[in-house]
Amino acid sequence: MNNKKKEFKEINKVYCEFCDEDIEYDTVIEEETININGIEVTFNKIKDYCVDCHNEVYVEEDNITNVKNANIEYRKKLGLIQVDEINSLLSKYNIGKTTLASLLGWGEITIVRYMEGSTPSKDYSDTLKSLDDPRTMKSLLEKNKEKVTDIAYKKCKKALNQYLDETSIDNCGDTVLENTVSYFLSKDYEVTPLALQKLLYYAQGFYYALRGDYLFREDCEAWVHGPVYTEIYSRYKSFGYDPIKNECIYNLSEEKVSLLDGILKAFGCYNGKILEKFTHSEMPWNKARVGKKDDEPSNEIISKKAIAEYFTNVVEKYNISNVYDIDIYSSTLKDKVL
Ligand SMILES: [Zn+2]
Prior knowledge:
Bound molecules: zinc ion
Strand order of the largest sheet: 6-5-7
Largest sheet: 3 strands, antiparallel
């Protein structure tokens, strides 16, 4: 945390009301106890001090983190559902906030508020917690299926089937690579064949850099438009430049899913052409393309080792210590290539 701040400090200055100018600041983390609704809550507070006058200064992102961390501790103390746990429910059952609200007969804004940090009542919290059990979720879904869209119902049903061990669901393959594809396609992103290849490549790179192992064993090739996992290319090439429509289910550990969520958060908002510019700006693809003309086909493999080394450097250089910070890198790429 401290290291990360140090690097940001070189770029970011904040306003100090005592010096009346933008200044650099030092960051320390101190345990602090505060009172929330009559409950004493202790959390690790990030504090920022002006390097010139040593008064405390306001850094917005740190303030947001502090409020969040205080809220986490408060909920822990009261046994209330955490924001993360609500997010996990949505992801586990492949539903959105609107669908969950409709199923429960709550206003959507209620769920949104809880996800933004408002504290749910014990009753509401317990109701949400009970949904962690797929059987409870299933009966809620079946009871209220006419309240949600047909697509939402089917997606949720499919997700439930994985937990309830029911058959009659498509499976698009058993390898981690295939399951990774299925996961990317199960989310609400428009993923074209071109974009999918890049997402796979970044998933492999950051999984190695953050988890110390390869996500999948397959190698990619340095094609004209970027890294390509050829068997996946063949499977979806008929979609051309359109988003892939696919109803496969996935089977991946929580730990892999969280990494893939980080990849989607960082790269899912860019289209295939922009992602192509990203990978064209990076060493592994360029190294495998040495001696090739821009439009010259090639089946040269981008070695997993080259990918591993490159992304290990990336996480060090940008102080990326968890999946939520991967977008620090994609934002930098965006500024660089656009
Ligand atoms: Zn100052």
